[in-house]
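From the methods appendix. Each design record in this collection lists the tokenized structure first, followed by the designed amino acid sequence. Records were kept in a plain field format so they could be parsed without special tools. The example shown here is representative of the layout used throughout.

RECORD:
FOLD TOKENS (215 positions):
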């Protein structure tokens, strides 16, 4: 697997610093599980960040700091051990959401050749974590983004004006980007997506139908 499209360096820095919310952090962690180059970049960022922290003056911690840290760890819900066999078709960071893999995903029709499935990440934030499936050879309507969108290819591939994106590749787009992904022939393109705003479609029909599609 050759990964050629990586997240923006500022996104990786935010991941390293722990400031991304769960949907975005999950997409980045899954990308890193699929990309040795991505892991190398994050390792370098961590080294730089550690050096910067070590140069800062020491600040005494409150007596309750350790208890708060342990409480925050306890609040994270572990993946169910009784949900079935370990999924072999998805990277490890995603298995807490899909313990049985992609075969049992309940897809929702979102448009001709397009389906989505929301992944419950357990909190009432504005960000959304979902799977996107585009039938082989079919386009997604041309659109922009109301905020930041991370799209990671899990299976298949798509093509747009930025190139061809295959397994492990990630598209890191903001509100300045408009594009029209078209799934490559052969296999359906399945993506892991994190968004924090609705898409902005160019076509009048898609804008009219958007409330029905929920994207």
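DESIGN:
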């Amino acid at each position: 697997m050759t990964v050629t499209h990586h997240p923006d360096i500022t996104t990786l820095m935010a991941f390293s610093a722990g400031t991304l919310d769960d949907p975005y952090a999950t997409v980045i962690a899954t990308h890193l599980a699929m990309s040795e180059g991505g892991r190398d970049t994050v390792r370098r960022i961590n080294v730089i960040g550690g050096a910067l922290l070590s140069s800062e003056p020491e600040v005494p911690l409150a007596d309750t700091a350790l208890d708060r840290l342990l409480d925050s760890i306890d609040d994270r819900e572990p993946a169910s051990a009784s949900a079935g066999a370990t999924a072999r078709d998805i990277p490890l960071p995603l298995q807490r959401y899909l313990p049985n893999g992609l075969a049992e995903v309940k897809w929702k029709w979102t448009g001709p050749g397009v389906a989505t499935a929301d992944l419950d990440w357990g909190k009432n934030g504005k960000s959304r974590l979902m799977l996107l499936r585009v039938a082989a050879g079919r386009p997604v309507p041309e659109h922009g983004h109301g905020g930041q969108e991370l799209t990671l290819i899990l299976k298949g591939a798509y093509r747009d004006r930025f190139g061809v994106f295959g397994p492990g590749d990630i598209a890191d787009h903001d509100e300045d980007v408009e594009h029209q992904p078209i799934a490559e022939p052969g296999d359906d393109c399945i993506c892991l997506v994190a968004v924090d705003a609705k898409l902005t479609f160019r076509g009048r029909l898609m804008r009219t139908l958007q409330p029905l599609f929920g994207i």
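APPENDIX NOTE: The chain has five helices and twelve strands.
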